Amino acid sequence: TEFLQRENAAFDPKDLIGMSLENVGGSIPGLSDESLERSRSCFQEAMATRRPVTWQMDIDAPMGRLCFETSVFPVLDERGVCTHLLRTWRDVTLRVRVAEELCASEERFAQAFRASPVPMTISRLSDGHVIDSNDSFEAMVGPRPPGPYDGAPFDLGLLTDPRDQDRLAAGLAPDRSVRDQEIRIRTRDGR
Questions:
Q1: 91 closest CA partner among 13, 150, 181
Q2: What value does the mean pLDDT take over residues 18-23?
Q3: Cα radius of gyration (the chain)
Q4: pLDDT beyond 60 at 140
Q5: Is the pLDDT at 108 greater than 50, yes or no?
Q6: How is residue 76 annotated by DSSP?
Q7: What are the phi and psi torsion angles at 14 (to 5°)?
Q8: What is the H or E stretch that residue 9 is in?
Q9: 23 pLDDT exceeds 90?
C-alpha cells in the first residue's frame, strides 16, 4: 500500500503550525512517540478493515499544543484492495481547550459545592426533584437514606409546607433569583 499525501497548494503549514511542508509530510517535530505509534496503528487498522479511522493527534508546536482530528480513509481498487490512504486533518484545538476549561470549571464548582458550609441542594426546576446535596445539607437534615436519591423536597418529607416548593420554583423563573427566603425544613427523623 502506498502512502500518498498531497497538500493543498494554497495551504502553507508553516502559517498554521510553524512547520514546513517537509515536516508536515514526514516526521513531525512535537509529535510524541506515543502519538506516532497511535497514528501508525490507525493507518494499519484502516488498511486491514478497509474502513475510515479517526483519532485525535496532539502536536507540541512552537506556539503551544495543537490538537487535530485526524482521519484516514482507505482508497480501494476494483477488487476491494486498499491501494492508497487519504489522510485529513482538522484543527480542533479550540474545541479541545474549551472542553478542558469546562471540565476544570465543573471540578471547581463541585469542590466549592461540596465544601461549602452553607446547606445546598441542586434540584431540577421543572419538578423540584433533588439531584444532589452537599455535606452541610446532609448534616442539617440527617443522613441520606440508602438507595436512589431522587425526589422533590416535599416528596422526600423535608418541606413542611408544599407551597414553599411552588414559591421557590416561581422565584426561579427566567431572569429571576431567590434570596433570603425562609422555608421550614424537617429533618429526616421527623423533627
A1: 13
A2: 47
A3: 28
A4: yes
A5: yes
A6: E
A7: -60, -35
A8: none
A9: no
Q: In Å, how far are 95, 156, 162, 172, 174 from 167, measured between CA atoms? A: 40, 17, 9, 9, 14
- What distance lies between CA 58 and its chain's CA centroid? 17
Using CA atoms, how far residue 24 sits from 18, 31, 42, 88, 136, in Å, is 10, 11, 18, 12, 55
Cα–Cα distance for residue pair 39/54, rounded to 1 Å: 10
pLDDT > 60? residue 7: no
Cell matching residue 30: 512535537
Q: How far is CA 95 from the centre of its chain?
A: 10
Distance from C-alpha of 6 to C-alpha of 84, rounded to nearest angstrom: 12
Short-list 37, 36, 85, CA closest to 59? 36
Model confidence at 146, in pLDDT bands (50, 70, 90)?
low
Output the CA–CA distances (angstroms, integers) from residue 76 to 45, 51, 81, 83, in the order listed: 14, 10, 5, 6
In angstroms, the first-to-last Cα distance of the chain is: 76
